[in-house]
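ASSEMBLY PREDICTION REQUEST
Request ID: AP-0331
Submitted by: J.K., bench scientist
Number of chains: two
Total residues: 416
Priority: normal
Notes: Please return the full assembly, not individual chains.
Input sequences:
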Amino acid sequence: MKNIFTGRDIVSDKGYITKRNIIEKSLQLFSVKGYYNTSISDILAATNLTKGGLYGHFASKADIWQAVYDEAVCIWRERVFSGVRDRTDPMIRITKFIENDLRNYLGADVFEGGCFFLNMLVELSGQSDPMSKQILRGFVRISKLIQAWLDQAADQGLLKPGLNHKEIANFIVISLNGAAALYTSTRDDTIVDQTIEQLGFYVRQLKA
Amino acid sequence: MKNIFTGRDIVSDKGYITKRNIIEKSLQLFSVKGYYNTSISDILAATNLTKGGLYGHFASKADIWQAVYDEAVCIWRERVFSGVRDRTDPMIRITKFIENDLRNYLGADVFEGGCFFLNMLVELSGQSDPMSKQILRGFVRISKLIQAWLDQAADQGLLKPGLNHKEIANFIVISLNGAAALYTSTRDDTIVDQTIEQLGFYVRQLKA
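STATUS: Completed
Returned structure:
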């Protein structure tokens, strides 16, 4: 039997909805309670599923985490790249990216427990190498993107000469993570405002 | 019976040593595994104590955490204030404090699991209000100290006019926490070097 609107099979539609529900509920649980401290029972309680219903979709908690990580990346990207890539001035792109990350992602309380990536990185470091490395690779990718924008800006003569672009890009990622740690524990918007202001000041000092 | 060197009672000396051992082992466990994920059994295994032996010194895991927190603060202070307070130039004091924190505390791997305070703040936020607030109060104290140094620097005419000292002090604390998050998961010394370099650049831009 097919859904008359989507043309998709109704059984698989139902499966899709259940799977989405598991991912969304687990994302919030992991972000608030942490990975180790979230039990399968917590996920069952949040999703109203039986063990059989859950394990029909995911083989393990680690499997759920993978799907949750991918979902968190999607949500983050949508928030931070909005109105960024179409800016022609690479320095405005960097400033806009910083503002989006702090105001529209972190400060918008997208995840109940704050920044999913920072929380997971801190919890899983030294405990799960594959999972913490996956998050680190994400941070490296962001840093490399900012670095590419800085390279572009230098090519256009917008930057002071002799700057270390890799180091600057890493420092921006580091500061954004520090803001995530402090904001999550305070939910104080001044953390967001002050970091936008001071990172903005820092970025302006790089300009020629 | 008294210890002939210390003049202290031998029984209480032994109690003191046991208590120190519990604090030191728990500090490493909490820093690596987190608070919730460290069980009383883990602490018993690390200290070679029986339940009775442990509970003779501490009433609960939360009690151990309090002692561990105080110990972590002592260790941190010793590392970061070395050669700082005697500097007459407040801007050199700030730079030295940043370097000490990153190189002699964070980068020196004082705690197996990285920065105890950042790890605990991230884990306990949204889960234990009293404990996460205690750590936040510590960060506020550090920020206020840096702010006082900035105020002094401004009084001496060393800073650009019109700077927001509170915001700058908070941004320094935020960046140090971000470096802690990234360093812990990578143990890559370039995180330490790059943050010293870029926070140094940032601080120099504040000068008149």
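REVIEWER COMMENTS: Chain B has two domains: 1-59, 81-204.
SIGN-OFF: pending second reviewer
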